[in-house]
Design brief:
There is one protein chain. By secondary structure, this protein is mostly helical. The protein has two domains: 42 residues; 208 residues, MetI-like fold (Orthogonal Bundle), CATH 1.10.3720. 78% of the residues lie in helices and 0% in strands. It has eleven helices and no strands. Helix 3 runs antiparallel to helix 8, helix 7 crosses helix 8 and helix 8 packs antiparallel against helix 11. The protein is globular and about 75 Å long. 30% of the residues are buried.
């Protein structure tokens, strides 16, 4: 009886969490323009997404920001994770704490801190400021994922490479990098997903003409929830789920 009650409790928890998302996806196929009452099935809202120029611009900004921040965060985060795993140096524990701070502290705190920083250095808010904010946020996740892969790394392979005459750069290129590559790709996909879905940092650091898709969805919802909003949200949901599943698969492979 206890196991059955626990199973019912878990099932109700999942229903509570995911039922609103399921309703959103279902109503993205609603023929009713207002979207509040189901009147029939239609696919017309999805083609309308590509016809809306403002949504296309938001998608373009989102992809540019996500791709740029992912590349930068993955490179910096991978090198930082390798250095912290491989070497002992002064300030290593402090640096470790700094990398974990964006994961621990509330995102709103980091968003406000970035706005203050850009104001102090007189940096104009725009697409570049969003990229900088996302890089600062995503590096931590890259470091965590890559260090998890390096944790089980066989150090004897590095010794064997050195015995065969390879220098440290050749060892990293031909031995270390191929072995941790699945972890790097998983970290990059996770970073891309976090940047793609981010709202708070984008909201605080965005300037004129730098509206990302989450910001666009928020501005559309303020005037009422329509099937177009549901369709945009459903597309983002599907993309996010696919990227997370690929990232988790690569981390298990790694």
């Amino acid at each position: 009886m206890r196991d059955r009650l626990f199973a019912v409790y878990v099932a109700l928890t999942y229903v509570f969490l995911f039922a609103p998302i399921l309703v959103l996806v279902v109503f993205s196929f609603n023929a009713n323009v207002r979207g509040s009452t189901w009147t029939g099935f239609t696919l017309e809202w999805y083609p309308k997404l590509m016809q809306d120029e403002s949504i296309r611009d938001a998608v373009e900004n989102t992809l540019v920001v996500a791709l740029s921040s992912t590349v930068i965060a993955t490179i910096i985060g991978t090198l930082a994770a390798y250095a912290m795993h491989r070497y002992q140096f002064f300030g290593r524990k402090l640096l470790d704490l700094i990398f974990y701070m964006p994961v621990i502290i509330p995102e709103i705190v980091m968003a406000v801190s970035l706005v203050i920083f850009f104001s102090v250095v007189s940096f104009t808010l725009g697409r570049t400021s969003i990229i900088i904010g996302h890089v600062a946020f995503c590096i931590s996740f890259v470091v965590i994922v890559v260090r998890a892969r390096l944790h089980g790394f066989d150090e004897s392979l590095l010794e064997a490479s050195a015995d065969l005459g390879a220098n440290p750069l050749q060892t990293f290129r031909h031995v270390t990098f191929p072995l941790i590559l699945p972890g790097i790709v998983a970290a990059a996909l996770l970073s891309f997903t976090m940047s793609l879905d981010d709202f708070l940092i984008s909201h605080f650091t965005a300037g004129v003409g730098a509206t990302t898709l989450p910001l666009k969805i928020y501005s559309m919802v303020r005037f009422g929830v329509s099937p177009v909003v549901n369709a945009v949200s459903s597309v983002m949901l599907c993309v996010t789920i696919v990227l997370i599943l690929i990232s988790q698969r690569l981390q298990r492979t790694a």
